[in-house]
Structure formats: structure tokens, C-alpha cells
Automatic annotation (TrEMBL):
<dbReference type="Pfam" id="PF03480">
    <property type="entry name" value="DctP"/>
</dbReference>
<dbReference type="InterPro" id="IPR038404">
    <property type="entry name" value="TRAP_DctP_sf"/>
</dbReference>
<dbReference type="InterPro" id="IPR018389">
    <property type="entry name" value="DctP_fam"/>
</dbReference>
<keyword id="KW-0732">Signal</keyword>
<feature type="signal peptide">
    <location>
        <begin position="1"/>
        <end position="20"/>
    </location>
</feature>
<comment type="similarity">
    <text>Belongs to the bacterial solute-binding protein 7 family.</text>
</comment>
<keyword id="KW-0813">Transport</keyword>
<dbReference type="InterPro" id="IPR004682">
    <property type="entry name" value="TRAP_DctP"/>
</dbReference>
<protein>
    <submittedName>
        <fullName>TRAP transporter substrate-binding protein</fullName>
    </submittedName>
</protein>
Length: 327
């Protein structure tokens, strides 16, 4: 063999072995800041994944809608442009899996313990299974917390919502919830919420305190009501083809990393939300309202009919089984 041909062969072999040794990259895209419960758990997963696979996997976390906004990230996952996401459960409707919107039903979870009975039991597993035909595998549920409502006026009674434009996630249940209060829901990507509030394109919004604080929404909202009227959580999802294609000795340590990151996420979610609420109070730009028993009763009366109204979309059977499990 001529020297040049031999050198070319050697170079090709070297680049093949460099390619074979290159780590498997998991791009994990999300829309919140790195210091939220989801942001911190994504980082923790990345660290554990690299450790447990001994560097065979590298996780690149892209927070704060840096790569994609809400709807685009789901498309990117299906196309394989990213491998992992953790969208809120309110955002699966556009994928054609409406059942996750059951998590948005007002007052459906009386406590976190009640919620875990659903997410960690057969209902939670069956819901994740529904993603498989969409080319998506569900790995875990992650927490955020119960939501507060905000606006530039006090929101103490349902009548206070009349005529307000309220930013929501793209969930028909949340749409119905705002309408039940007499407000006009506006579905906007999370990355657009702060700006829309700032310029007055919308009047108010809802989110757990950790999201409100880290997006600085409290700086442009004069009033926050600690209503805890609904829940916001996530499903961690991967591109199914990518996941199924991983060798077993890579997938198993990744599953372990996900289990540990999930435990960590649940440990920090409540604390982070409490700290965020405290920080909102301390910032002094927002008046924080706590509802009296009478006001709470009025909210429930206005919002509970949304369960019945959403039966045709989500399924009466599912709503009933969540209600009877979440006690
Ligand atoms: C929102 O859009 O309000 C939230 O879903 C953002 C998030 O991912 O927590």
C-alpha cells in the first residue's frame, strides 16, 4: 500500500475511534430559570447522569427558553433536535394528549400527599403510557407547587376578575377556569408572560411563587393572592427512539440518575416556593392577600363547576378516579 493511502486509512481509523468514544449527548431544554426547582433538578440529573455513566453521557441543559419556547420544544423533542424536556402538565394538549389537563382542574388536589397518590400510582403510569404513540417516553413527574393569582388590583372575590385579561398556559382547563371567574384567558408562551404583563397586554396571571419570582413578574404585578386554587407540575419526557436505542448499560444508570434527581426535586420544590413567596413579600412591590374562609368558599363555588364542564374533554372516568384517589 502506498504511504499516502496508508496515512489516509490511519486518519480515518483515528477519527472513527474518536467518534466511537464521543459521549452521547442529551440536550435537555426547559423554559424556567436555573434556580427554580425544575432548573436545579435538571442540573442534578445532568451531574448524576455523567457520574453514573462514567462520562459516556453528557447532559447539556438549556434553561429559560434559550433554545425553544413551549410549543416548539415539544416539536423539537419529537423531531429529535433535543432529547429531554420537562414541560408542565398543562402543555400536553397540543400534542393530542388532553388527559394531562386533569391536573389543572381547580382544587382537584387537596394536598401534595394526595397528588402523589395519583402521580406515583397506576393513574400516573397510565397517563405517561399515553405519550408512547407520540414517540415520547415519560420518565417521571416533577413538582412545582400550588398556584397564586396576580394582577394590578386586589383579587379577593371572583367578581374582582371580571373583564381582566389573564395569561394562562395552553390548557383548555385553564381557559375554562379563567372564564368561570369572568376573566378573558390569553394563552401565551412562558417566555412572553413577563413582557406581556409589563406592557399591559395582559392584566394578570397565575403560577406558583417560584415561577413568579424568578421571572420577576411580581415587579409588574401590584397584588398577589395566595389562593392555592390549582396545581402546577411537570412530566420529564424523552424522545422514545433515542431512549430505546440506548445500550442497556447506559440506560440503566440514566434511570438511576432520574430516580435520584426526582427525589431531590420533590424535596426542594416546596421549600423553594416558600422562599420565593417570602422574597416577593420582602421586595415590597406587591401586596400579598390571604383569603378568608368566606372568600375561599366563593372561589370554590365559582370554580368547581369547571370539573363537570371539562368531562367531555378529559373524560369523566379519569376525573372521577383522580378525585377518589386524591384524598
Ligand atoms: C408556565 O408556562 O407558566 C409554566 O408552565 C412554566 C414552567 O415550566 O414552570
Amino acid at each position: 500500500m502506498q504511504l499516502r493511502a496508508m496515512l489516509a486509512l490511519l486518519a480515518a481509523a483515528a477519527s472513527f475511534s474518536a467518534w466511537a468514544d464521543a459521549p452521547i449527548v442529551i440536550k435537555f431544554s426547559h423554559v424556567v430559570t436555573p434556580d427554580t426547582p425544575k432548573g436545579q433538578a435538571a442540573e442534578r440529573f445532568g451531574m448524576l447522569a455523567e457520574k453514573y455513566t462514567k462520562g459516556r453521557v453528557k447532559v447539556e441543559v438549556y434553561p429559560d427558553s434559550q433554545l425553544y419556547k413551549d410549543k416548539e420544544e415539544l416539536e423539537a423533542l419529537q423531531l429529535g433536535a433535543v432529547q429531554m424536556l420537562a414541560p408542565s402538565l398543562a402543555k400536553f394538549g397540543p400534542l393530542g394528549v388532553r388527559e394531562f389537563e386533569a391536573f389543572d382542574l381547580p382544587y382537584i388536589f387537596p394536598s401534595k400527599a394526595a397528588l402523589y397518590k395519583v402521580t406515583e400510582g397506576p393513574i400516573g403510569r397510565a397517563l405517561l403510557q399515553k405519550l408512547e404513540p407520540k414517540g415520547i417516553t415519560g420518565l417521571a413527574y416533577w413538582d412545582n407547587g400550588f398556584k397564586v393569582m396576580s394582577a394590578n388590583k386586589p383579587l379577593r372575590m371572583p367578581a374582582d376578575f371580571r373583564g381582566l385579561k389573564m395569561r394562562i398556559q395552553s390548557s383548555k382547563v385553564l381557559d375554562a377556569q379563567m372564564r368561570a371567574l369572568g376573566a378573558y384567558p390569553q394563552a401565551l408562551a412562558f417566555s412572553e408572560a413577563y413582557q406581556a404583563l409589563r406592557i399591559g397586554a395582559v392584566d394578570g396571571t397565575e403560577n406558583p411563587p417560584s415561577n413568579m419570582f424568578t421571572q420577576r413578574m411580581h415587579e409588574v404585578q401590584k397584588h398577589v393572592t395566595m389562593s392555592n386554587h390549582g396545581y402546577l407540575g411537570y412530566a420529564v419526557i424523552v424522545n422514545k427512539k433515542f431512549w430505546d436505542g440506548l445500550p442497556g448499560d447506559v440506560r440503566r444508570p440514566l434511570e438511576q440518575a432520574m430516580r435520584e434527581a426526582t427525589i431531590y426535586e420533590k424535596q426542594i420544590a416546596q421549600r423553594d416556593n416558600d422562599l420565593a413567596m417570602e422574597a416577593i413579600r420582602r421586595a415590597g412591590k406587591t401586596t400579598v392577600h390571604t383569603l378568608s374562609a368566606q372568600e375561599q368558599a366563593a372561589w370554590r363555588k365559582a370554580l368547581l363547576p369547571v370539573h363537570k364542564q371539562m368531562e367531555s374533554r378529559i373524560g369523566k372516568g379519569l376525573i372521577d378516579s383522580i378525585t377518589s384517589t386524591a384524598k
